[in-house]
Amino acid sequence: MTTQTTFVTTMNALREFHKASCDHTPGARRQVLAKPVYPTVSALTSLTPEEAAAVEGLKEDSQRNGAVNTNEIQNQITADTERFKESGGGDAASEEFRKRMEEKRAAQKESSNKMIDDMFDKAIDIGEKYPATQGAILSVSDQIMAFFSKLYNEIYFWVSNIVEQFVEWVKNALENIKNTARRIVDWISNWFK
């Protein structure tokens, strides 16, 4: 196997490992993937300014994509929450809110997989164009993908908590409304007794 083939094969194995670590599909039978141990396909040599800039660009792209993705999901959740507040609540509105949050989780998984694929494709292209960068790319790509995996997991659990807390809040709010109304009705009926 050539160094080039080893590099691409290792990068694709890392891609699958990181995508699998983002799978929280309810009821999914997850295959536990072992994180690939990669050989040093090229020594971490001094890179030319152009090569170093290409590797650094991978980090910058990942940070930018992560920030954009997080802002988008925050704006969507805020809009859905406002929509719910404006609807006046109720069972149908609560169910619609929950449905939208579930859709956000599914969309986030797709978005995360796309970001991982895009970053790995870009990293492989750079490694093929500049073979001296392959060792650095393997190291940086593993860090970047760990970042995307963690980002996805943070957003996934953030949305999950919103759904759980929202449902609990609605349940408690409705129960509190019923109990308060019942106490007031009891108080009114006992006023003159």
TrEMBL record:
Residues 64-79 have a biased composition (Polar residues). Residues 95-112 have a biased composition (Basic and acidic residues). Residues 57-112 are annotated as: Disordered. This is Uncharacterized protein. It comes from Pseudomonas jessenii. The lineage of its organism: Bacteria, Pseudomonadati, Pseudomonadota, Gammaproteobacteria, Pseudomonadales.
